[in-house]
Design a protein that fits this description.
Length: 574
Amino acid sequence: MGGSSSTGRGKTKGSSPLAMTPVEEVDISAVRYKPPTLQAPHLTGFSLRAFVWLMESPLLGPLITSFLKSQNNMPQTLQQTVIPERPMYYPEYPPQDTEPGVVLVGEDRHPVERVHEALQYLPSYDPSVRWATEEKLPFLYWKIRDFAHAYSSGITTPSVVAEHVIAGVEEWNNKKPPMPMLIYFNADDLRRQAEASTKRFEQGNPMSILDGIFVAIKDDIDCFPYPTKGATTFFDQIHTVEKDAVCVARLRKCGVIFIGKANMHELGLGVTGNNPNYGTARNPHSVDRYTGGSSSGPAALVSSGLCSVAIGTDGGGSVRIPSALCGIVGFKTTYGRTDMTGVLCDSGTVEVASPLTSSVEDAMLVYFAIAGSRPMDKLTLRPSPLCVPNLLSPDNSNILGSVKIGKYTEWFHDVSDREISSTCEDALKLLCNTFGCQIEEIILPELEEMRTAHVVSIGSESFCDLNPHYKAGRRTEFTLDTRTSLALFGSFSSTDYVASQCIRRRIMHYHMEAFKKVDFIATPTTGMTAPKIPPSALKSGESDYVVSAYLMRFIIAGNLLGLPAITVPVSGWS
């Protein structure tokens, strides 16, 4: 298997099965990287419809899924190999020391207080950067503090910006081809929210720095009174939204203005953003290409400048992949750091709600609004205290000079086009030359085993959530590529799932060993640039696991291990 090492697995005596070497005994220095060799058909149109029929056939379906899994060595890894480690059903970390140069922030405090405290440790806002001339600048690509300054200075109001947003949404929807970034949008409701925010500014009493900031919510997160469909055609009929999801409620307390429910890959089961139900959200930089997914609408909205912030979910790169392909910031938070109550997939072990923003600063401010574990996670996960970097402290003036960046060079360059990794490498060199960071070579064994463990984990957890509806006769109401995924996910056994959690423990060990040497691990976010949209995929969808594997190449550890991860743009579009 690609990314595996012969040093981590060997035969036992006689006719006994394969057995992995206990993880503490693996000689990491002897590991050799092998490029992955995922095999799966690329299907659209009639071929996809026929393949789904075969996959769902009681007689032929098990044969096809068994063949596909065998082609990718899944039975060998999960059923024919002894894995000596015990399962890790949730991410478990060793105790973490408080980082230098940070200030602890009580996560039980009101969101407004947390955001205000985070704001105190940012450099002072310089209006001259944005407002260098008297010319009225368009609102496109304003950041949070740009809006806040414009509102408090009387340059504009939330109501005025709301009209720009409404016009922008209509313009994108009427383009040829159309850009369906939102599934649910109510212009009158947007005006009402903006009017309330405008009055608060007129009275000199904004709720927070986030008051009047326009925010889109992915369609798998409850935002009352809008329906939550998960970008299906029917889920709102069986899922009643009675109140905001916790992350949405926290933002509402800060005075944000909700644009509506953003488009997505149906139920989050894909990373291109394709959606035949409501139309596929196209990449604002190149409309013949995908945004990436599953948070396709959130990424397109922020990238197009219609809002500074969107909230998505990330169970397999679904915030970071579209952020990378659309040239914005996507911050995947630590597992359990944000309360998932009110999110469709709120019981899995890999998914989190996270912000997509126009800048790293905006991601930090939004993070401090939505952060806060649910009580159950505080008991089971024991998260480290919430903290904010003190960027004003003299002790932090040269803190990047001590940072060590981990880089697994062979993996780093395993991309579809070497220009991708070379551009990222240039960014790392610039960081090191400017701030004195150091790059340390690391090795991360069993990367393909990690991919297998992740797909079984997220697949089994998703199928568990959706199976009652699948069995209740809703099967044909899902899109074809969702049905393909569910047919595969339904073939995973309890043995597969438990073995995957044993692998999770091994992968966690390898990463914790790497973090003894480095402060963070740097990779390209995706192994390819935004893929083109096949015209035949718009009507009936698309299944292309090879493209998905390229898009997910570097993002899986953040989900399987629950680690925080961020994608930032390193170059403009040509």
